[in-house]
Write a structure and sequence with these properties.
The chain is of the alpha/beta class and about 350 residues long. About 45% of the residues lie in helices and about 15% in strands. The strands form two sheets. It has an eight-stranded parallel beta barrel, surrounded by five helices. Strands 6-7 form a two-stranded antiparallel ribbon. Helix 3 links the parallel strand 4 and strand 5. The chain is globular.
Length: about 350
């Protein structure tokens, strides 16, 4: 199994300056390669303190210049907010600059404040995503982008510098809604799982995706990439206490940024499946946090290993990406968390063989 580290630049309630947050997160990111991590990731978000990385490819370019071997993962580039021709150029450029280390993660977005900030109709996000992804993925394979769609209209233009290797097998999409299974299978991309649903539901949706992928692509789907918010400590009681504190605060920021305690998602075309999530958040934020905590990776090193293995038994992932610094966790705590995981958890996971293809 490959092991990644993600850095998300949170500043909840602006308790610190954005500059201090960046200095601390960049210092942590600098540790990833020396500590033996296989990949470095970040996320794209805009306009709020939820996460402050508005250009994930720019951050990964900084990482590329300071490293030699770690792979560079976007978690994710939100395609409806971008001109996909420009994304194709940026991805190809980063792949050249890094010597072919890019793992491309794409998604369609969920935050109303972000769609409104870019003047994009949220109800068009799914068809915009599909058209943008088609243009981007075909362009990266052929070296030129062209599409005459309802939302994306691009005359044929070459990508320069031209992609020098295929992105097949290293492109993933964050898929959350049940309708996404067919879309992602038809696009021929893997699945990036950011835990927010019961694992039984994830298993069912992955089975549907794998069946469609096999039917459409004539091959087995790639193993998914799984992310998780990590709190690792030698003391089991302290791990449980601090995980509840920091994971709980992180999920409060999720509720706030995505307005999960409202009701707009259930009334927005393409997001109807979130109606139940919003209902739970309105009823009890604490219940939602308890549920979120049950999905994440926390405990002693042995407990963290077992939690990740249990997730692997369910979904068959071959790449785990941990988030080690979040909410208002002090840098010293985040660094201790990162170092302990790298020393006592990652070697055990890295020794695992590739997962068996699931029926």
């Amino acid at each position: 199994m490959q092991i990644g580290a993600a850095f998300i630049f949170q500043n909840p309630f602006d308790r610190r300056s954005d500059r201090d947050v960046y200095l601390d997160e960049l210092a942590l990111a600098d540790l990833a390669e020396p500590l033996g991590f296989d990949s470095v990731w970040s996320v794209e978000h805009h306009f709020t303190d939820y996460t402050m990385c508005p250009d994930v490819l720019q951050f990964l370019t900084w990482v590329a210049a300071r490293t030699e071997r770690v792979r560079l993962g976007s978690m994710v580039v939100v395609l409806p907010w971008h001109d996909p021709m420009r994304v194709a150029e940026q991805v190809s450029l980063l792949d050249h600059l890094s010597g072919g280390r890019v793992i491309l993660g794409i998604g369609r977005g969920l935050g109303r404040i972000e769609f409104e900030g870019f003047g994009v109709d949220m109800e068009t996000s799914r068809p915009r995503f599909v058209e943008s992804a088609q243009l981007l993925l075909e362009g990266l394979e052929k070296g030129a982008c062209e599409l005459a769609g309802a939302h994306v209209r691009q005359p044929r233009r070459d990508i320069r510098p031209r992609p020098f290797q295929s992105f097949r097998g290293r492109t993933y999409a964050a898929a959350v809604s049940p309708e996404s299974a067919r879309i992602m299978a038809e696009l021929g991309v893997g699945i990036l799982i950011i835990p927010q649903k019961p694992w039984e539901t994830v298993e069912k949706e992955l089975a549907e995706y794998r069946a469609i992928y096999r039917e459409v692509q004539g091959a087995e789907a790639p193993a998914p990439v799984a992310a998780g918010w990590v709190f690792c400590d030698e003391d089991a009681d302290r791990a449980a206490e601090q995980a509840r504190r920091y994971v709980g605060d992180y999920w409060r920021s999720v509720i706030r940024h995505y307005e999960l305690d409202g009701d707009h998602l259930g009334r927005t075309r393409g997001y109807e499946s979130y109606a139940r999530t919003q209902a739970i958040a309105r009823e009890s934020a604490d219940a939602m946090i308890d549920f979120a905590l049950s999905l994440q990776v926390w405990g002693t090193p042995a407990q963290c290993i077992e939690r990740i293995l249990e997730i692997r038994r369910r979904i068959g992932h071959d790449h785990f990406v941990g988030v080690f610094s979040y909410a208002d966790m002090p840098r010293e705590e985040a660094e201790r968390n990162l170092r302990l995981f790298a020393r006592s958890v990652a070697p055990e996971l890295r020794a695992l063989s590739a997962p068996q293809a699931r029926p």
